[in-house]
Specification:
The protein is mainly alpha-helical and 332 residues long. It has 14 helices and 2 strands. The chain is globular and about 95 Å long. It starts with a helix and ends with a helix. It has helices at 5-14, 26-41, 43-50, 56-96, 117-123, 133-140, 179-189, 204-207, 212-215, 223-237, 252-263, 269-283, 285-288, 296-331, and strands spanning 145-146, 149-150. Helix 2 crosses helix 3 and helix 7 packs across helix 10. It is 58% helix and 1% strand.
Amino acid sequence: MFTLPSVVITSGLLRDPEENPQAYSALENRHYASFQALVKLVPAFALKVDSDDGSPEELQRWMDEFAACLQIGVSGAKSDDTRSLRGAVIDWLKLDFPADTVDLNSDTKVSRGFRNEVTGRLLCPVMLDWKDENVRTQSVNRTATVSGDPVNGSHWPSFLYASGLYDENLPWVGFLMGEYLLRTFRHIFTSPSSAKGTDELPDDIRATRSGNAASYGMTEVTKASIAYAAAQLYFVLSDSAVFNKHQKNCDAFGLYNAIRDYLEDPEFESDNNDLLLWWNRRVFPDHHVEKNNTNHGLAHMRAARAIARGRSSGAVAGGEGQQQGLTASSSV
């Protein structure tokens, strides 16, 4: 989300595909994964790079122009998502918490962040107690700390957890299952209308206009897309006016990378496989929910035929028995 396409392209071209991924840093592996996704999405790019047409200078110029076009698209998409979510999220909160969101405005961010009861609670790190008046005051003044460290994106905000519930002994339980995180993801990748409800398998995902996922053939949730949705929601809830990686008052970039680090940590691989399944069943149910393929009509007809055959056999057997009885009586 915050990495320049030119960096991703250069990292991918310089990478030895046979090299053990463990020889690289997590960020380098992340860049390479993005490069592989780019090659898959734009096959013509790989063909151009592998071709012998033109001089090295011409190829470099073409790649620079290609990276510049990608950057324009990335920046535009991020801005569109932010602009759309800016009002949508506030609409959700006003509907769910009418008494505590009177001062929130869909068009401005002045009253958001830790100044508001609802947005402050959602942004508050789960390691801190939002009910504590000192925590509230320090959060507004940006002096809050966790174990002596200033609060940043790696201190999980409450909205990442299901119902905002956090167990310090089992901190992975409910993580990245927050209601507003899920709705933000649907708003971005399926359609705004699919984000209005919270049903596990919303029918309106199928009924609304095609969203980004349908337009680009996206049929499963990715680790990067979850982190991206979280960063967008983090910024929208904050009172920060600028959304970039240099913004210290809203560490969306830090949150994005922290979530990616967690989702790519081998220690939690099994938990995260279950987590991705949970996400896929809610966002892309047509592709990930097990369907019952039983032909109920045919099954019913087969059962009825079996019963009919049984009755027919019984009737024949009964008729033969009666005939034998009559024959025996006439012989006496």
